[in-house]
Amino acid sequence: MEPIDNGPNPTGSGNQANFFSGARHVNAVDSNITNIGRDAHYTCNITNPRESKPKEMTADDLLLQTPQAPAVFTGRSNVVDEAIKMLSETSQVHIAILGAGGIGKTSVALHIMENPLIEDKFAGRCYFIPCEILADATILIQGLVQAIGLQVTQGKGPLGVLLDYLKGSQEVLFILDNFETPWNSNTQIEVKNLIEKICSVKPVSVIVTMRGTDGPGQIKWHKLGSQSGLPPLELGPAKKAFCSFSSDGNYSIKEDDSILEKLLIQMDGMPLAIMLIAQHAKELPLNDLMEMWNIENDCSAQENWGAGEQAYKY
Questions:
Q1: Do 205 and 298 reside in the same domain of the chain?
Q2: 67, 73, 189, 210: which could form a disulfide with 180 (CB 3.0–4.6 Å)?
Q3: Is 206 exposed, middle or buried (0-12, 13-18, 19+ CB in 10 A)?
C-alpha cells in the first residue's frame, strides 16, 4: 500500500519530506522509528551496517584463488632448484621471493611447491595461501586455519589452535603468496607478530612472495635470485616463452626473428608483459606489434595491452 501524501510542507513534498524534520544528532541505530502524519504512517528499521558479520573465509575460497603452475616456464630453473635444495636438505628454512609485479614470483613458488621432492618431504602438509584475499591479520589467521582444515573449539581462538597444531606437527611448508596485501594493511604490527610466531616454530618452513626488496618482520629470509629479488628474464628464455605462448596463433614466429628480439628488449624481460604481448601475436604480425608498442610505450602500457596482472598471477 502506498502512503498518502497529505500536501506540501516547508521542507519539501508532503509527509515524506518531513520524515526526520527537526532531528539533530540522533543515534537511531538498531531502532524502529515511526512517523505519523495525518492518515499516513511510516516505519523505518535502522541497523548498523558496520556491525554486520563479515563473510567467513572457507577452504574453497582459498582453492579457487590458487592457480596451477604455468606450463610455459623458462629461465627460472636455477632459482627453483636452489629453493628445492634448501627445503630438502634442511629441517627449516624461510625463503623470500621478491620483486616487482609481473616478474614471476607466483610462478616460481608454484613450481617449487609441485616438485616431487617437496611433495614427498611434506607429504600433504604443503599449503599455498593466496594472501591477496586475506586483507588483515584476523582474516589471514582464518585462511591458515581453513587451509589446514583445523576445527576451532570453544575456549580457544583460531591463533591458539593454529600454533598448537604447528608445534605438534611434522614438517610443514606455508607458501604465502602476495603477502604484501596483509603486510601493507593497517594491521601490519599484528601481521608482523603472526609471521614471526609462525616462523619461530621449528617444524615450519615458509615461502613468501611479495613486492619489494625485503621480506617481512625480523626473520632471516633467504632471498631467491638476488638481494633485490628475482631478475628479469634473459633474452634466450624470453624468446622461448614468447614463441611458446604464441605457438597456436595465425603467425609462425621464429626465435631468431630480429623484430622479436627488438620487441623483447623493449619489455625488459618481464614475464607478464611477454605473455600479454604474445597473446596478441596470435592475431597480429610482429611488425604491427612493434609499432603498437612504440605508440603505447609509457607507464600504463601493460594496462592497454590486455587483462593485466589482476587476471594473471606471476
A1: no
A2: 210
A3: buried
Beta strands in 20-135 (DSSP E): 31-37, 40-46, 94-99, 126-130
At residue 133, the pLDDT reads 96
Please report, as a single letter, which amino acid is at residue 56. E
What range does the domain containing 122 cover?
A: 59-223
- State the average pLDDT over residues 25-37: 49
Residue written as grid cell 572457507: 58
pTM of the model: 0.78
Q: What is the mean pLDDT of residues 158-185?
A: 95
314 assigned to some structural domain: no
Q: Point out which residues pair with 176 in neighbouring strands.
A: 129, 208
Could you tell me if 80 and 219 lie in one domain?
yes
Kindly tell me if the per-residue pLDDT of 170 is higher than 50: yes
pLDDT of residue 305: 46
DSSP for residue 133: G
Residue with cell 600504463: 300
CATH code (residue 177): 3.40.50.300
- Residues 160 and 166: their CA atoms lie apart, in Å, by 10
Question: Which residue in this structure is represented by grid cell 573449539?
Answer: 153
Q: Nearest 5°: CA angle at 274, between 268 and 275?
A: 155
Band of the pLDDT at 30, cuts 50, 70, 90?
low
In this structure, the dihedral spanned by the alpha carbons of residues 289, 308, 184 and 212, taken in order and rounded to 10 degrees, is -30
**Is residue 311 scored above 50 in pLDDT?**
no
Alpha-carbon gap, residue 88 to 171, rounded angstroms: 11
Mean pLDDT in residue range 30-45: 50
Round the CA-based radius of gyration of the chain to a whole number and report it.
27
What residues contact 169, with CB distance under 8 A and at least 6 apart? 125, 203
Using the CB atoms, write b or e for 105-142: b if 16+ within 10 Å: bbbbbbbbbebeebeebbeeebbbbbbebbebbbbbbb
For residues 207 and 128, what is the distance between their CA atoms, to the nearest angstrom?
9
